[in-house]
Amino acid sequence: MGEQIYCNGEDAARALHAAWNRWCRWYAGITNDPHVRLALHQVDPKSGNYDWVRCTSESVARDAADWLHALGYQGGPGGGQGDAEFVYIYLITEETREEG
Length: 100
Description:
The chain has helices at 9-20, 34-40, 58-70; strands at 5-6, 26-31, 50-55, 86-91. The chain is of the alpha+beta class. It is globular, with a radius of gyration of 12 Å.
């Protein structure tokens, strides 16, 4: 999505949601390394069915993920390790692993 860093969770969530505008089969979470986290979820990097944004803090990232969950994205509270500044989303398929 680019290099913008979000300092407001709602803005970060709206940016991801607006870019993809699909949510019924999407998963949202937070992480400190989106490449590693998406690999753990077994998301195919060639699929293009994923995205992430960077936030100014883990608190902002959690707020963004909460917004996405309220919009119907799968996932839940938790995740992150104290430095999780990225919010990520991916399309859930038969190959992905949501408990990642």
